[in-house]
Design a protein that fits this description.
single chain; mainly alpha
Length: 202
């Protein structure tokens, strides 16, 4: 009897997942976002600095088309909404809706990657053609790498959500993963404004 009570007491102290707004993963994700945000900030600053110092027409092939990048912007923002909805549904113990929301977010992320790959193929220049081409491919390519990593995270979260791992008390991993996806989407807004909008206004 005493052995059973001791085992029960030990089990009560075992971790059952990240719980609470101050979990270690939360601070780790904030640190990651700060460092990655700084990296993209430097890249955008470099783009604008080289743009201001150049004497050639920028971009060399004329103002960029806004159709596909604008569509991708809407796609990413919509995906963020569905990630947010997925977390809310988990907190309300509506697992089916949470799984559907995360699934839609993943599909939208895949659409973004597909459209971006088509944009690469349709470009009349490559990464080594000129300075603008190098900056364009490096900045958007680095962002797409973050999108792919974010998709891998969302797929894992979808699996855990579908298996019932998360509930209204244990969902911090979903919040942390969603935070990364929202960061990737926010970075794209700055990239879109810098690479695609600024040539029309600067």
């Amino acid at each position: 009897m005493a052995d059973r009570l001791d085992a029960a007491a030990m089990n009560e102290g075992l971790p059952v997942g990240s719980v609470g707004r101050r979990a270690g993963g939360w601070w780790g994700m904030l640190t990651l976002i700060a460092t990655e945000g700084t990296l993209f900030g430097y890249l955008i600053f470099s783009y604008l600095y080289l743009y201001s110092q150049g004497t050639q027409h920028w971009p060399p092939d004329g103002p960029p088309k806004l159709g596909a990048p604008g569509f991708n912007t809407v796609v990413l923002l919509t995906s963020s909404v569905f990630v947010w909805l997925g977390e809310r549904f988990v907190k309300r113990d509506r697992r089916g809706f949470a799984v559907a929301s995360l699934g839609i977010a993943i599909v939208l992320g895949i659409v973004f990657v597909g459209v971006q790959m088509k944009e690469y193929r349709d470009r009349p220049y490559g990464p080594a053609t000129h300075l603008y081409g190098s900056l364009y491919f490096f900045i958007t390519g680095l962002h797409m790498l973050h999108v792919i990593i974010g998709l891998a995270v969302l797929i894992l979260l979808l699996g855990w959500t579908a298996s019932g791992y998360f509930d209204r008390d244990r969902h911090e991993a979903l919040t942390i993963g969603g935070l990364y996806w929202h960061f990737v989407d926010a970075v794209w807004l700055f990239i879109f404004a810098t690479l695609f909008i600024s040539p029309y206004v600067l």
